[in-house]
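Re: that backbone. Tokens:
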């Protein structure tokens, strides 16, 4: 971090690496739910977020894919779109996109110099220092509200919803993808408690669209929407979809909504779960068309869905041998991956490499994955919260204690060496899969695709 000079003023950052290092230096402050610090920062810079239109997206899984589809269709329709997502796969700047282009390095430096004295001023108060994600969110609001001026910002929550940093905005539509078991140490230990936190993004009079299916979770969302007088569009109630075809790199579905029906929409994102995310995105776009005067012609809509891409999720990054990467870092994500391995992909043998963080619920994750594997290589991500590979083996042995089929289990803590083993044992008709934490996915993806400037992380 650049030190202050002797006069009490700051020596400004001149390189993007300095700005990023400073933002990342706030990681030790952890995750501290609450809106006071972000509200104070925004007040000090003139509340740029109030000039913007937001689509606010919360949920356990599927947020990134949903954001990608919404962005793709809106861009195809000619709108300028800001997209704020996390975590990123390659570079820190990936999280702040304008028309699918990263924030320019010089703009990030400029905004970091603007925010830094405010952050350090707040750090001296009883509120304590803003966190890395709070400052990142502040960068997004300043960028979109004072530099880029998009027509709409697709805004992904970081954690939960009610107390998430992004929840200072009043969107034009709220989106809740699903409710699952993740971040239970922060959001609560039951589906109802997690749903309560996610439903916290619902604002007075702002329509909300959801594909949440558990009755108890949907009831929490329904009650919150009613309380806020927000029109609720729930899957299998106000809208529905039917799968028409399901194959690798090509899926299609039909859509039945409150305003109209669409006979066939195609996507290239893989996995049956992406059809649900696409239906959610489509219902959201229908709300924008019907009530916000967004102009999205049908040919544009179909093109936008076909072109949508989201790296690191059921992404085939190598063909010889076939290597699939997927950030299935919680039980719901693992169940989705398992379904795709059964329904979408064809192979003789399946070899899986996995690395996890120590903060996740691995028993249920492994329960979905292990039965499909012929070989499992446990490794460790290059990250401070990594889980010891030997600990994963112990959990796997417990999961497999009553299994009829047992994969061969290998341990290689060095992920580079583990990847070499994985590709070496994958035959021409086999499928190699790297899964687990996105920190591992990021490293493997960059290594395979030679993206040497990858930074990865939250």
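Recovered sequence:
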């Amino acid at each position: 971090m650049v030190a202050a000079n002797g006069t009490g003023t700051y020596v400004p950052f001149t390189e993007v690496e300095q700005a990023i290092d400073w933002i990342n230096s706030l990681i030790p402050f952890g995750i501290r739910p609450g809106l006071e610090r972000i509200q104070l920062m925004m007040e000090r810079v003139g509340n740029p977020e109030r000039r913007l239109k937001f689509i606010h997206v919360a949920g356990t899984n599927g947020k990134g894919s949903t954001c990608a589809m919404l962005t793709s269709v809106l861009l195809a329709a000619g709108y300028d779109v800001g997209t704020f997502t996390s975590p990123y796969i390659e570079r820190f700047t990936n999280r702040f996109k304008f028309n699918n282009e990263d924030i320019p390095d010089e703009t990030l430096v400029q905004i970091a110099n603007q925010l830094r004295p405010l952050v350090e001023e707040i750090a001296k108060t009883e509120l304590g220092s803003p966190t890395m994600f709070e400052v990142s969110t502040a960068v997004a609001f300043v960028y979109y509200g004072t530099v880029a001026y998009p027509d709409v910002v697709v805004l992904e929550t970081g954690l939960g919803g009610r107390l998430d940093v992004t929840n200072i905005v009043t969107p034009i539509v709220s989106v809740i993808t699903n409710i699952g078991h993740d971040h239970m140490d922060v959001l609560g230990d039951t589906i109802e408690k997690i749903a309560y936190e996610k439903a916290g993004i619902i604002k007075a009079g702002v329509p909300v669209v959801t594909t949440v299916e558990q009755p108890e979770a949907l009831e929490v969302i329904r009650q919150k929407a009613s309380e806020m007088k927000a029109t609720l569009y729930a899957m299998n109630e106000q809208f529905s979809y039917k799968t028409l075809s399901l194959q690798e790199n090509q899926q299609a579905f039909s859509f039945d909504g409150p305003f109209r029906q669409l006979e066939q929409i195609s996507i290239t994102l893989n996995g049956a779960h992406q059809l649900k995310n696409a239906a959610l995105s489509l219902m959201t776009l229908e709300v924008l068309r019907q009530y916000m005067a967004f102009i999205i012609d049908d040919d544009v809509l179909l093109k936008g869905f076909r072109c949508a891409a989201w790296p690191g999720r059921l992404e085939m990054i190598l063909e010889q041998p076939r290597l699939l990467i997927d950030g299935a870092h919680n039980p719901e994500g693992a169940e989705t991956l398992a379904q795709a391995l059964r329904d979408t992909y064809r192979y003789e043998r399946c070899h899986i490499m996995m690395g996890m963080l120590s903060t996740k619920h691995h028993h249920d994750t492994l329960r979905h994955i292990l039965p499909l594997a012929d070989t499992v290589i446990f490794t460790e991500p290059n990250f401070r919260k990594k889980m010891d590979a030997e600990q994963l083996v112990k959990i796997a042995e417990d999961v497999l204690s009553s299994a009829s089929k047992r994969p061969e289990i290998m341990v290689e803590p060095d992920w580079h060496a583990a990847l070499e083993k994985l590709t070496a044992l994958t035959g021409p008709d086999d499928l190699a899969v790297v899964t687990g934490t996105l920190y591992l996915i990021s490293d493997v993806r960059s290594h395979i695709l030679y993206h040497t400037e990858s930074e990865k992380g939250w």
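Residues 105-123 form the longest helix (19 residues). Confidence is low (pLDDT under 50) at residues 1-7.
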